[in-house]
Amino acid sequence: MKNCIVAQSGGPTAAINASLAGVIQGALHHKYGHIYGSLNGITGILEEQFLDLTEIFQEKKVLDQLKISPAMYLGSCRYKLPNPNEDITPYETIFRFFEKMEIAAFFYIGGNDSMDTVDKLSAYAAKTQSKVRIIGIPKTIDNDLCLTDHTPGFGSAAKYVAASLLEIYHDTAIYNVKSVTIVEIMGRDAGWLAAASALARNGYSAAPHLIYLPETAFDPEAFLADVQKLLKKYNNVIVAVSEGIRNKNGAYISASTGTADTFGHSQLSGAGKTLEYLVQDRLHVKVRSIELNILQRCGSHIASRTDIEESFCQGEHGVSLAAEGRTGLMVTLTRTSSDPYQTACSASPVCEIANKVKSVPPEFITPQGNDVTPQLISYLKPLIQGEVNITFSEGIPNYLPVPHLL
Amino acid sequence: MKNCIVAQSGGPTAAINASLAGVIQGALHHKYGHIYGSLNGITGILEEQFLDLTEIFQEKKVLDQLKISPAMYLGSCRYKLPNPNEDITPYETIFRFFEKMEIAAFFYIGGNDSMDTVDKLSAYAAKTQSKVRIIGIPKTIDNDLCLTDHTPGFGSAAKYVAASLLEIYHDTAIYNVKSVTIVEIMGRDAGWLAAASALARNGYSAAPHLIYLPETAFDPEAFLADVQKLLKKYNNVIVAVSEGIRNKNGAYISASTGTADTFGHSQLSGAGKTLEYLVQDRLHVKVRSIELNILQRCGSHIASRTDIEESFCQGEHGVSLAAEGRTGLMVTLTRTSSDPYQTACSASPVCEIANKVKSVPPEFITPQGNDVTPQLISYLKPLIQGEVNITFSEGIPNYLPVPHLL
Fold this sequence. Notes:
The structure is a homodimer of 406-residue chains. Chain A has 406 residues and is of the alpha/beta class. Chain A has 13 helices and 15 strands. Chain A folds into two domains: 214 residues, Rossmann fold (3-Layer(aba) Sandwich); 143 residues, 3-Layer(aba) Sandwich (Rossmann fold). In chain A, the strands form three sheets. In chain A, strands 3-2-1-4-5-12-13 form a seven-stranded mixed sheet, with helices on both faces. The first copy, chain A, has a four-stranded parallel sheet with strand order 7-8-6-11, sandwiched between helices. In chain A, helix 1 packs antiparallel against helix 4 and helix 1 runs parallel beside helix 12. In chain A, 59% of the residues are buried.
């Protein structure tokens, strides 16, 4: 068998290295000669910056460590291929590289933008009758890719969000004083991750008491009324809010003007901070906002085992597709059974997925637009099940070093 | 034996319930009749709001679950006892309650302010010849209590900070673009927790590359020069900063004026955000700030086993002191050996601890004021060792419910 090459692209997740491990495992199984890793996404191919992964991952224990390490072993890029009708140069460079290195298959692990690259390269390969198989392997904590049940990386981020929300509940429950806590969660265009905060609810905690997603127009007055009503029932009201909430005119609930700090700089505030000031100003109650920030996407120490295993399998499945001679596909996941939860790897033409966004459908949001439905919780719950065995050295997690990225 | 009562006060930590579990275990061992738990600190005694913990914690497995649950099972308060020369009423109320409930010992788990309460109650007991033993049991993620090697709760917060910093390193390492990441860590007056970020460094990562503590005057120009220098060596510079950094005039590096967001509210920004804007404005490089916020004090899912066990022992030891007839003391910890790391419980008069702050001494900070010394790292490292066995239900941690606080 000839060689293959794999790359990662877009924002990091706790599971994108699990998909890489799956690709390596699959490529070893299908006996590709060399398994190359392109550094910093497709730009590594354009600039001939790559590693030979076959040597690095000889030992199973190194592959196992890769599987549970956060972010991206091969680095990332935000490179978008030009329209081939306008500039064919990068396409020619890429396929010349494939020929020189005797590449039979290229695997690209990424989100929406990366699937655009897979789509364009597949089309170019078809047009030029290249035999190189081009396969997309999904990843995104946003869970917004179409035609797949859910995306690799989402379950681990959701588990981090849910566990953190529960811990925030314990933290806020201690004072006998009314308070509001706003938790801002990633997801600019799709509210899946903010919705996953509902998984923090258990037998004794109803937090978060309110959930706002970008899919519903945010009404500040309705929000204030909701908070006020809940403060009659609970001492400490916890609100989960997507970073991407917008008002009825489509403007983000954020931004600021005319600000100056100690050093005289202007400032912008996110959705969480903005709601914090709104509550403070209008309800005169103790309020705090918490931005989960990038920790929600790189918190491998509390990754979901379901997510890590499914991500690995989808990497492996991508290699099987290429080995069968298929191309222009993105690996997808089908939920074959809900009770018990079961999934199977599948595939769809990447052209039907690239540049599209799967939002939270209206039927998964309550009519008031301030919570998610039990159906959405049932869909989400299996994705955060199970824990990953992380080992620790000197008190901190043992992850795979990424010395070539330093 | 008569009864005893225990309460918790101040800000929450991941280990303050371990100390409570230690008190309960110790009181069971010393055969106190009833072990009462005052709700919301000393105010629960003033208002006769309490639980009988003897019944609730009959089963060892419930006590074990308490030990690893974040924040405060009994709730907290920020009540400061008045000067007894000005108002004796609360003292009389408290000791009347002790008499009525046949209380032989009162255990108060808390930080600086709580030790002030222990001190005042001890003095009142001595003056009125009360036989009630008054014992303080330390807690604070700030590690700023005097006369003890380190404080319960600090090690778990330090482990959360170090693990998160390592994950942030992995997350930032992926792009081939220069960037600066500022991580704001709790500790308004003492930099111990920000210093613990140094424990994130390992064989492949030198992050955080800069550490700023409140103990050293913060010089914005020196900071910018440091960052600029490091950007020549590293693609992604990570800076750990205490929320309490101040300039040479003692003013906090934070605050803002004349700000207005979408809703027209004024804003304040913390140290991290302020440095973010400084870097953006002056160095024109990609920059992000991350506030670890309350997650660093309630992240029990990544608690330090060393911290949890030591916190438990200190709770137990407090009861032994009272059972021996001692009073007016705070339990302390003595490092009996550094290699191997060993500690023993001890005690000091609470009047020597209350209202005092232990800062990071100058010899633990580099002369440039932008990092900590290897000696400080050696002191900190043992405190984050070991992990706690957390079980999960439906994907989220199994903590002890606190229904009485709802």
